[in-house]
């Protein structure tokens, strides 16, 4: 034991990790996986037989949950893959600003003003039309790996 003081600078952010490991062979269709550092929803899984030199391989076809791009990956089934922590939260829509940002009411009564309108044309039209008609709208925000995006809309009646 030394009596010197050591000071360490933390480079990582505190709190939970953005991903957790899961064995590739246990990941199923409609589950989540990280491919090329993007959180994805698995749409297809196929497993090859063990070859002369080793492991069975899992071939994943997945869609990026934020931009809709199709990604593929092949991983030995005994190896670990990163799986993103995906959360869905409902917020009530209060306002839509001119620059495309939305104002949302959180459960504790605060407002959340850092989200943009979704890029999906259909969902965007539904939100704008419903808001224009003065309806009470609840949007579902999906968050994973430090990104957030509006992914669904519910109409809870007129104001």
Descriptive report:
GO terms for molecular function: ribosome binding; RNA binding; translation elongation factor activity; translation initiation factor activity. Belongs to the eIF-5A family. Keywords: Hypusine, Initiation factor, Protein biosynthesis. Pfam families: eIF-5a (PF01287), IF5A-like_N (PF21485). Residues 1-21 are annotated as: Disordered. This protein is mainly beta. Helices cover 8% and strands 52% of the residues. The protein is built from one helix and eleven strands. The protein has one helix spanning 121-132; strands at residues 19-23, 32-35, 38-47, 57-64, 70-76, 80-84, 87-96, 101-105, 111-116, 135-144, 147-158. Strands 9-8-7-10-11 form a five-stranded antiparallel sheet, covered by helices on one side. Strand 7 (87-96) and strand 8 form a beta hairpin.
What topology emerges from the helices and strands here?
Elements: E1 19-23, E2 32-35, E3 38-47, E4 57-64, E5 70-76, E6 80-84, E7 87-96, E8 101-105, E9 111-116, H1 121-132, E10 135-144, E11 147-158
Antiparallel strand pairs: 1-6, 2-3, 3-4, 4-5, 7-8, 7-10, 8-9, 10-11
Short description:
The chain has 159 residues and is mostly beta strands. The chain contains one helix and eleven strands; from the N terminus they run βββββββββαββ. The N and C termini lie far apart (67 Å).
């Amino acid at each position: 034991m030394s009596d010197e003081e050591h000071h360490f600078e933390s480079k990582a952010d505190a709190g939970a990790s953005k991903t957790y490991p899961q064995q590739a062979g246990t990941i199923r269709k409609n589950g989540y996986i990280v491919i090329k550092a993007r959180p994805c929803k698995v749409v297809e899984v196929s497993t090859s037989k063990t070859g002369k030199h080793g492991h069975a391989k899992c071939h994943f076809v997945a869609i990026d949950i934020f931009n809709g791009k199709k990604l593929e990956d092949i991983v030995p089934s005994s190896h670990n893959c990163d799986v993103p922590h995906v959360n869905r939260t409902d917020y009530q829509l209060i306002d839509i600003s001119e620059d495309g940002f939305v104002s949302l009411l959180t459960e504790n009564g605060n407002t959340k003003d850092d989200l943009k309108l979704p890029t999906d044309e259909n969902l965007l039209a539904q939100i704008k039309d419903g808001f224009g008609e003065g309806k009470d709208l609840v949007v579902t925000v999906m968050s994973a790996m430090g990104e957030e995006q509006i992914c669904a809309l519910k109409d809870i009646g007129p104001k």
